[in-house]
């Protein structure tokens, strides 16, 4: 029970923001420095590691893009609507909601990890935040091992995004309902 939407495509801004965010997440995950906390405790200056600088810069970019996307969702033209089985609609809403939540939580948990352990935030262009006293002195600092939480959420977003991509391919190949095409450029 699926049919093509009357408005068959997302607007160009939504498509660009979607794909830009997806690419940045994949690159940030790929560059994610394993053992970062341990290396910092051993005296590593993160500014000397291009992968850490890029990972942290891309993480901040994901957060900013997600906030922009949320504003755009409130302002944009109507998104395409597809008549899907109710269970598919529920699963799609749940997965999309989790992806949005993770795109916000991942950068926050990164800042909590850095701030609670006294590590600097190092970004492209030589931007560096050495101290984060609001985080270090907050009750949240000791509430969890934020580095572990960040790593778990990073793995989770990649698996969930993979499931999201596989579902889009399923819609395209099996259901032929235009769901995948709605996020691709018009022909």
Q: CATH topology, which one?
A: Fumarate Reductase Cytochrome B subunit
User: How many β-strand stretches?
Assistant: 2
Q: Structural class, please? A: mainly alpha
Strand-residue proportion: under 5%
Average pLDDT, all residues: 92
Uncertain ranges? 1-5
What's the Cα radius of gyration?
Answer: 19 Å
Strand order of the largest sheet: 1-2
Helix share, percent: 55-70%
* Helical stretch tally: 6
Coarse morphology: elongated
Report the span from N to C terminus: 26 Å
CATH architecture: Up-down Bundle
**Total number of distinct structural domains:** 1
Can you characterise this structure?
The protein contains six helices and two strands; from the N terminus they run ααααββαα. The protein has helices spanning 12-31, 36-41, 50-75, 86-117, 133-136, 146-175, and strands spanning 121-122, 128-129. It is elongated, with a radius of gyration of 19 Å. A two-stranded antiparallel ribbon has the order 1-2. It is an all-alpha fold and 187 residues long. Residues 1-5 have low confidence and may be disordered. It has a single domain (12-183), classed as Fumarate Reductase Cytochrome B subunit. Helix 1 (12-31) packs antiparallel against helix 3 (50-75), helix 1 (12-31) crosses helix 6 and helix 3 (50-75) crosses helix 4 (86-117).
């Amino acid at each position: 029970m699926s049919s093509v939407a009357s408005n068959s495509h997302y607007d160009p801004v939504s498509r660009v923001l979607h794909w830009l965010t997806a690419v940045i997440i994949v690159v940030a995950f790929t560059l994610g420095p394993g053992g970062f906390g341990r290396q910092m405790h051993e005296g590593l200056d993160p500014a000397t590691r291009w992968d850490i600088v890029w990972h942290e810069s891309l993480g901040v970019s994901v957060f900013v893009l997600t906030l922009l996307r949320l504003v755009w969702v409130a302002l944009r033209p109507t998104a395409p609507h597809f008549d899907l089985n109710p269970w598919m609609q529920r699963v799609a809403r749940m997965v999309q909601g989790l992806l949005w939540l993770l795109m916000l939580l991942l950068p926050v948990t990164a800042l909590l990890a850095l701030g609670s352990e006294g590590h600097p935030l190092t970004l492209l262009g030589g931007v560096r935040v050495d101290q984060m006293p609001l985080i270090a002195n907050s009750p949240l600092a000791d509430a969890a091992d934020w580095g572990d939480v960040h790593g778990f959420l990073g793995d989770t977003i990649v698996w969930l995004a993979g499931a999201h991509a596989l579902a889009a391919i399923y819609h395209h190949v099996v259901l032929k309902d235009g769901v995948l095409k709605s996020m691709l450029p018009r022909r």
